[in-house]
Fold this protein.
Amino acid sequence: MAISAQPHPLLTATPRRPALRHLGPNWYATVMGTAIVANAGAALPVDAPGLRAAYTTVWALSVLMLTGLLAARAGHWAQHRDQARTHLLDPAVAPFYGCLAMALLAVGGGTAAVGGDVVGAGAALAAAAALWCAGTAVGLVTAVAIPYLMVVRHRVDPAAASPVWLLPVVSPMVSAALGPQLIPHLPEGQWREAMLLGCYAMFGLSLLATLLMLPLIFARLVHHGPLPLVLTPTLFLVLGPLGQSTTAVNALADVAPGAIGAPYAHAFGAFAVLYGVPVMGFALLWLALAVALVVRAVRNGMTFAMTWWAFTFPVGTCVTGATGLARHTGLDAFSWLAVALYAVLVTAWAVAAVRTLRGLLGGALLAAPSAPRPMTARTT
């Protein structure tokens, strides 16, 4: 049986009674979207009085959000194990487990970038390393486990293809993009080179998995029309692997000279530009297409849902990708692109955060769904 086109209760719900039972893994997107505001802002090629303090405040907020959400999700697994299992067996929900890894990694990246101003450089580095290791481990497991469930347990058809499918396989790319923060702090020689090439391996893992899924997503749009209104914002998720991979190759090129021999270090620097510029061009093409489809959805009555957080983290990765290209090419055009995209990111984050807070206070976002969703997983 194919997945229904009706909105999923994790994405939108009719107000009933707020309960921890209905707190799904998609909530980690709020942490990702908040942390990237700090990470991308700290990386911008511009500076002004008070900006670093603002980024640090947003990073601190992301730490609090991650801590609270981890505790809440632990309570969800302890008290509502049946519902947690249902989430894993639901092909519309299981991919959101990729958000856990990216939330850990994004907060860790912010800790390395600005956390030292609050807790000290040594503590910030230790926390960033711990979060990177935890996020990477969770991400690698998720990148295998969720596709395995899609093959063995979930039952889907081409009409059910969604950008949400990218979430489990993008998290290793986030590890590849943030790993370079740690490389200069490792012992010279084998440790640095192993970390550098390990990040490149995760870059390749995520990139090739993304290339497998993107044709399915575009074919679904062409053959079956626009996504349901509530899912339309997820089109922005395609920007994630594009912007994050551009960020990764540029960040790895920055640290390559201190981690690997000269011939390869120079090649990695050239690859950062040769790869990043075309991919950023495609990212802008997809951004224009996604914006057009979102405008269409708004005109057709699209209202707020948790999927609006898709407007944040993927755009943030394009900010860091453009910043990396500005650094390696010296072109002011990439700097202005990064600043313009950052303005979009901050606006999207503010809107999503306010609407989410309103939904939490009103009880709608944690309410029981008005009608149960039929199970779509195989029984064998």
Summary: Residues 1-17, 371-380 have pLDDT under 50 and may be disordered. The CA atoms of residues 8 and 92 lie 7 Å apart.
